[in-house]
Structure formats: structure tokens, C-alpha cells
Amino acid sequence: MVAFIGLVRDVNAGAAVSEMILEHYPAMTQKALEAIESQAKQRWEIDEVLVIHRVGRLLPTDQIVLVAVAGAHRGPAFQACEFIMDYLKTQAPFWKKEQTPSGAHWVEARDSDEAAAARWDGGTTNEHE
Question: pLDDT tens across 60-88, in order?
Fold first, then answer.
């Protein structure tokens, strides 16, 4: 079993973050999460996936996401967990607004997040330890 818990950042791009508002369209988000989980199950030999993503008003250090992957071998479970997180950050329809000392602003996707997700575009990986 591999689990990742993500926290709301207290600093982003050098600015202190006092709160984050996370918005989504529930049906669209659920469909996207199911597609990401399905892709992970197709790529790796894993048994179960659990994704819980919070929405609404969140404060720095609040838990924002849980990704848990169960499988017979740690390698595929770790890879699937990392894949799911990379895709959540780039493919899931969440909109983040951060409140900083200079005001509120929408958070744009980072180039590093896009690059992390792009590395999975090479096809399937279904391997053991």
C-alpha cells in the first residue's frame, strides 16, 4: 500500500498564502478522477486506488488530497501513485484561488507539473518490483 497526502502550501511563488479556495464542477470532476484511476489500473498491475480531493476553503497546511494505491508489489504501486498525482495536478478540473498579501489570484498550472505529467505519455508500464 502506497499513500500520498498533499497539503496546502503556506508559500507559493515567494508569496505567503493565507487561504485557498478550490472550486470544481462535481460531475465533471468525478468523471475525470474515474478516468485517471482507470488509466492507472490499465498501466500498472495494482489492485485498488482511492483518491480523495477536498474542495472549498482551505488553510495553509490543511490536507488537500489523499491518493492511496494497493498492489502486490511496491514498484507498480509507487509509480501508479506518482502518475495519479501528476495527472491530478494537470488533468483534473479543479480551479485554485490563493489569497496572498497582494490580493487573490487564480493559480496557473506550472511548467514543472506539465513536464511531470508529460513523462507518462510514452505508453503503458506494467511491471513488478
Answer: 999 999 999 999 999 999 999 999 999 99
